[in-house]
Design a protein that fits this description.
Elements: E1 17-20, E2 23-26, E3 30-31, E4 37-38, E5 47-48, H1 51-63, E6 68-70, E7 76-77, E8 80-81, H2 82-90, E9 98-103, H3 120-134, E10 139-145, H4 153-164, E11 168-174, H5 178-185, E12 192-196, H6 203-215, E13 218-222, H7 242-251, H8 255-266, H9 279-287, H10 295-306
Parallel strand pairs: 3-6, 6-9, 9-10, 10-11, 11-12, 12-13
Antiparallel strand pairs: 1-2, 4-5, 7-8
Helix pairs in contact: 1-2, 7-8
Length: 307
């Protein structure tokens, strides 16, 4: 079934707003991970996406009111870089556009994964690379993405120094545990947390969302649609949950729209960043903000989430 909302053009402002530091953004944004390639992302032999197509998606996103774009220097394929595409498509940047990037993960020029940036020098080099690729003299928002459970004090402290130096405007965290949020906030203000979250996420992720909501910090879920499909670029893997499929059918919507709408209903500080390389999916993703989930729908989806 073709989603009813897929033919309806919705402005991102319909999703409402939340703040990233001192910047107000619409709650539906755009994730750039899928832009540089078609199919699987973050792989050495990824198939580069048509440049004109990627540029058209970015420009259309901004036309539809998207003013929060998530990117990273390690989002690239042979011939294509997400940051370079953003710069080419959107510079000079609109005054209200917030471009968030992340540091920590690293890839060699051939696309293979390299050692995670853990020292102040390595993190500064990644910040400077993002500045160069985006053509900026400062970054609006930098998320420290981590792996593991060890202390982040030295790494977050290094980014706080770059913030004081004027290279970064705001700081955030990505892929963290609850204890990391308190550790970082003792060093510098945290304006957002970017963690994997969607229907079926772990109780620990629910706890991170709860903490962010209590503190007034933006919570930015990634993989909200893809779930375990993740960076393979395949969307949600396996058969869709019957509860999600039933709600989608009742509304004449796609299951992706239902999953996005559900995340936005979780709390007012949730900012969605669905990614796509297609204009049709872009329109559908933004339209998810107006999907009228009923109390019964939410009960059904919440039960699926808890199960």
């Amino acid at each position: 079934m073709t989603p009813a909302t897929s033919v309806t053009t919705v402005h991102a402002s319909a999703s409402g707003t939340w703040t990233l530091g001192d910047r107000a953004v619409h709650r539906i944004g755009f994730g750039a991970m899928r832009l540089p390639q078609t199919g699987p992302a973050l792989t050495p032999r990824a198939v580069p996406r048509d440049r004109d197509q990627a540029v058209a998606v970015l420009r259309r996103a901004v036309e539809l009111g998207v003013n929060h774009i998530d990117t990273a220097a390690f989002y690239f394929s042979p011939l294509r870089s997400a940051n370079e595409l953003i710069s080419h498509a959107l510079a000079p940047y609109p005054d209200d556009l917030v471009i968030a990037t992340k540091v920590g993960p690293a890839r060699a020029p051939d696309g293979t994964w390299a050692e995670h940036a853990r020292t102040p020098e390595a993190l500064r080099a990644q910040v400077e690379e993002n500045l160069r690729q985006l053509g900026r003299d400062h970054l609006d928002l930098v998320n420290l993405r981590i792996v593991g459970t060890d202390s982040i004090a030295e790494r977050f402290g290094a980014l706080a120094e770059l913030r004081r130096a004027g290279l970064i405007r705001h700081l955030g965290l990505s892929n963290i545990r609850p204890q990391h949020l308190a550790e970082a906030r003792a060093i510098a203000p945290v304006v957002c947390v970017q963690n994997p979250y969607g229907i079926g996420a772990s109780p620990e992720q629910d706890e991170v969302l709860r903490l962010c909501t209590e503190l007034g910090i933006a919570f930015v879920p990634f993989y909200a649609i893809a779930g375990s499909g993740r960076e393979r670029g395949t969307g949600a893997s396996g058969a869709e949950l019957p509860e999600v499929a039933a709600v989608a059918e009742a509304h004449g919507a796609s299951t992706a729209q239902v999953r996005l709408a559900w995340t936005l209903h979780r709390a007012p500080n949730v900012l969605a960043i669905p990614g796509t390389g297609g204009l049709t999916h872009l329109t559908e993703n933004i339209a998810a903000a107006t999907l009228p989930l009923t109390p019964a729908d939410l009960t059904t989806l919440n039960t699926a989430h808890q199960d």
